[in-house]
Structures are given as C-alpha cells and as structure tokens.
Amino acid sequence: MGAVAVAGAVMFNTLVIIPALRRVPPAQAAVVAQRVGAGLMRLGWAGLIIQGVTGFLRLARLRLLDDFVTLQLFDTAYGRWLGLMVLAWFLWVGAAAVQTFWFRPLLLQKLPYGSTLRDLERRRSLLMRISSWQERLSYFTLALALAALIAGGLIRV
What we know:
The protein is mainly alpha-helical. The chain is 84% helix and 0% strand. It has one domain. Helix 2 runs antiparallel to helix 4 and helix 4 (77-108) packs antiparallel against helix 5. The longest helix has 38 residues, at 117-154.
C-alpha cells in the first residue's frame, strides 16, 4: 500500500501537476505548487515510512535478515529483485529528503521588507535553479517508482 501511495503521488506530481503549472502564471503556479505539494509531500513520506517498516518486518518474518545483511540473499533471483527494491527505496528517501528539507525551505523563504532590486533578481535566479533541480528530481523519482513497482511485481519467494 505504501508503494502504491508513493508511486501514485510521484506519478501525479510529475505527469499532471508539473506540466499544468507550466501553463499558469508564475505567481499562481507558486501558490498551487505550495498547496498541492504539501499534501503530496505528506502522502509521500507516509508511504516511504510504511514501505520501510513493512519491508523490514517482511524480511524478519521470512527470516531473511541475516542473509540480507551478509549479502547471501543476492545470489538468488528473489534477492536481486529485493535488492533493486531496497536500492530504489534508499534513493527515493534521499531524493525526498533533498526536496523536503533543502529545497522546500528555500522556496518558502520570503524576502525581507527592505529588499533591493538586486536582491529580488538574486532570489528569482535561485528560485529558477531550484525549480529546475526539483523537476529533475521529480523525473528521477518517477523512474525509481517504476523500477520499484516492476521489481515488486517480478519478485517471487
């Protein structure tokens, strides 16, 4: 369920929200992105946490934790698909952390009242760079979502 929630949020953001925001004036796009993005961020983190906890519990229930840690599990097809899922999850968490804890605070930061035109231009340039990186990360997480879903669908005990 966590994988479906996260993959759905990523696909919705990347394939629906980002293209739609390109067609809206920047001021309105920023407000929409902030509001929709906050909900998708919460859904994404909830899904990632659920995936991590249930994945760990499944390994424990199947008594595969020792094999996973010693890398013996990766000698099997099951282990290789599982390894792809775990790698995708770790990369996903890393991308989500960058977007949530680094980019988001920078995007939400307001200029002080006495800002000059130069400050405004610097801020605009920074926002454009962050927006570009955020879009790249969205496509990267879309690829991770698809890889994790395919690996999960092909995994056999």
